[in-house]
Specification:
Keywords: Signal. Helix content is 6%, strand content 43%. By secondary structure, it is mainly beta.
């Protein structure tokens, strides 16, 4: 999943400051933007927030848990903060590669239910929207190819029903390599997709997205390149004004760990911090897989890191592992 991301950055807020106003903003969004209509005149910056200190230690949530589909590594995951649920996506056993399974687990990693969405994509990142006692899943769908290299071309929203068939509502059809992530605290959704061959991030109020309104993004900017590009992109999430990404590959030797977390200010489109993470470094063939945000019942806000692993290099089973960071700074 390595992607070469261009270094040139232009933030929407910078354009507004330069006096371009709505015309400049419209030019930035362009024909390939995430908008279902014309750009809104009422575009504001993301509210200022704290960010996670990526250099602080990580703590275990759970290790070594098998998902409903046992032979494929975990991919993206997300939290229903309101109903205290975790949802993790991975490929189906015996599927085409782009057939995905969403497994609901509790905070001990025990399976609570599962649901399938075939010909969906890769599952790099997903989102969850609580509606009362129900959890609605947001994820890619309509894969561009029936293999493990398939990527979604639209966003799906559907109610999670254990063992049920998804009743899917689709958005932003005709996209290229589209995924999403949700901020459960601030109730926003980030959409990541290619526009003109580059990866862009757009952020919307979750309620607006659920209503099918993508006309007024809160943020829209190209994903910045990193000094050590190319890297293997493995997931993302958002909290407040910041986007967090994880990259790296799987290794049998802990000395070869190359898993990095990056914090990006969505008001500037620039990298704020980047740090190596050794969370779960003792795992067998540890591979970074996804990020998520959760606020505990005690009020602690956490950045969760997912890693796939094996019990041995010969074991066909793949295991899910979650860790978190909890130090916020200005």
């Amino acid at each position: 999943m390595s992607e070469q991301v261009p270094r040139a950055l232009v933030s929407r807020r910078s354009l507004l400051r330069m006096g371009g106003g709505l015309a400049a903003t419209t030019a930035l969004l362009g024909a390939g933007a995430m908008s279902a209509g014309p750009a809104s005149a009422a575009i504001t910056a993301m509210p200022v927030s704290k960010r996670f200190d990526l250099t602080k230690p990580s703590y275990d949530e759970f290790r070594g848990k098998i998902l409903h589909e046992s032979h494929h590594v975990m991919q993206g995951f997300a939290f229903d903060n309101q109903n205290v649920r975790i949802f993790i996506v991975n490929a189906r056993n015996g599927g085409t590669g782009d057939d995905l399974c969403i497994t609901q687990v509790n905070f001990s990693g025990q399976i609570q239910g599962s649901m399938h969405l075939n010909n969906a994509g890769h599952g790099v990142s997903i989102g969850v929207e609580p509606v009362g006692a129900d959890s609605y899943i947001w994820m890619e769908c309509d894969s561009d190819g029936p293999t493990g290299d398939g990527r979604g071309t639209a966003l799906a929203r559907f109610k999670f029903v254990n063992g049920g068939t998804p009743s899917v509502k689709k958005f932003l059809t005709g996209s290229d390599t589209i995924t999403c992530a949700t901020d459960p605290i601030n109730k926003r959704i980030a959409v990541r997709r290619k526009e003109g061959g580059r990866m862009f991030i757009s952020v919307y109020p979750l309620a607006s997205a659920a209503a099918g309104d993508f006309s007024a993004p809160l943020a829209h900017f190209p994903q910045p390149a990193l000094a050590d590009e190319p890297v293997t992109f493995q997931g993302y999430t958002i909290f407040g004004q910041y986007l967090y990404t994880v990259d790296g590959t799987g290794h049998a030797n802990p000395a070869d760990i190359d898993s990095y977390l990056t914090c990006i200010d969505m008001n500037t489109g620039k990298v704020k911090s980047r740090a190596l993470t050794k969370a779960g470094e003792s795992l067998v063939f540890r591979e970074p897989e996804g990020l998520g945000i959760y606020r505990s019942l005690a009020g602690e806000t956490r950045l969760y890191l997912g890693f796939g692993s094996r019990s041995s290099m010969d074991d066909p089973n793949r295991y899910a592992n979650l860790f978190y960071k909890n130090v916020l700074i200005d």
